[in-house]
Amino acid sequence: MTLRMFTAIALAAGVLAAGAAYAQQQPAPAAAPAAPDLNAVPDKMPFATPYGTPITLERAQAAIQAAVAEANKRGWALNITVVDPNGDLVTFARMDGAQLASIAISQHKARTAARYRRPTHAFEDAVQKFGFNYILTLDDVIASRGGIPLIEGGKIIGALGCSGGTGSQDEVVCSAAAGTINK
C-alpha cells in the first residue's frame, strides 16, 4: 500500500512540475494596440480634405470599370458604387452573381467615405482595434472597409464603395479602382 501511495505522490508531483514548466514556456498574449487619447486636442483638424467639384459620370464609370476588371481578375462578384462629395449616387454596377444585400451596403460605404472624408476602414479600426463603440452611434456610419474617398487635386470629388466579399476583398477592389483617380 505504501508503495502505491508513494508512486501516486511522485506521479502527481511530476505532472504538476511538467504543467508549471509548460505554462512558463507559453508566450504572453499580444497586447492590444494603445487607444488614442480621446482627450488630446490636435493642432489641426483630422480628415479635413476639402470638397471639390463632383466627379463626372464619365470618370465615375471608368472607376467602376476598373473595379469590375479587378474583381473579375480575382473571380469575385461585387456591387460597386460611385457617389459625389455629398454621398449621392453617380453610378452603380452589380456584377453577375453579386449578393443582393450588398447593393445597399456598397452605397452606404461610398456615402460614408465621402461625407466623413475618410476610408471606412478608419471606422472599422476605431471599433475593432480600439473599442470606440460610440462610433456606431454617429449618423450614417458603416464600420466596414470597402469605402474610399476619391481625391483629385487635393479635393474630394466623390467616393467609391464595394461590397459582396469580405471586407478585405471589398477594400482591394476599391483601392484598385480608386488608384485610377487618386494619384
- What is the global morphology? globular
Question: Under the CATH scheme, which class of the domain at 57-178?
Answer: Alpha Beta
Strand content: 5-15%
Strand order of the largest sheet: 2-1-4-3
Ranges where pLDDT stays below 50 over 5 or more residues in a row are none
- Topology as H/E string? HHEEHHEEH
- CATH-defined architecture of the domain at 57-178: 2-Layer Sandwich
User: What is the tally of helical segments?
Assistant: 5
How many E-type strands?
4
What is the subunit arrangement here? Answer: single chain
Rg calculated over all Cα atoms:
25 Å
CATH topology descriptor of the domain at 57-178: Beta-Lactamase
Please bin the fraction of helical residues.
Answer: 40-55%
Give the averaged pLDDT, no decimals.
88
Tell me the span between the first and last alpha carbons.
83 Å
Class computed from helices, strands and strand pairing? alpha+beta
What does the largest sheet look like?
A: 4 strands, antiparallel
CATH superfamily of the domain at 57-178: Haem-degrading domain
